[in-house]
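Predict structure. Chain length: 185.
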Amino acid sequence: MSRYLVVSAIAGEAKYVPEGIPVVVTGVGKTAAAVATARALAGIDTTDLVVLNVGTTGALRDGLSGLYLPSEVINHDLNADAIRAIGLDPMESLPIDGGDGTVLASGDVFVTDPAIRARLAERADLVDMEAYGVAFACRQFGVPVRLVKHVSDAADEAAMDWPALVDASAKVLGEWVRAETSRSA
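Prediction complete.
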């Protein structure tokens, strides 16, 4: 039987997570997410633990909506080619077990620009700001992670309305967590 730890960027994204399931709020961005996740994992027994990174996401392609469980997360604002050119592994892509085949681009850029959206859409389906940091920390601790993302916007100028859209996504995310955790109880 698995135990769960929910990790989200802001409290609003985890507002409807069922009581009794621990929640870590990381703050915005990959660095904050990695540090908060690592701090949480370092302080607990990780035996049979699964981290659920729940949050909103922007759709990089028209027509994407609803809930996704990405199978890969890429660090999109890293110059991976230059790092490889000097002989180092940038680890810009992390596979995620149990995903649905979608690719999530994660970076510290809040995407509203159509040119950035189009560039990211060449490599990914969705975009967020924390999943890579959460997944990287979990990998370092040997803890499985599932990315659970609900499309809140189209990663365009309308993304500036994101604060008003979080609650609707949080309800869907909370219901998914409820169903997932009750199946393994």
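Summary: The mean pLDDT is 92.
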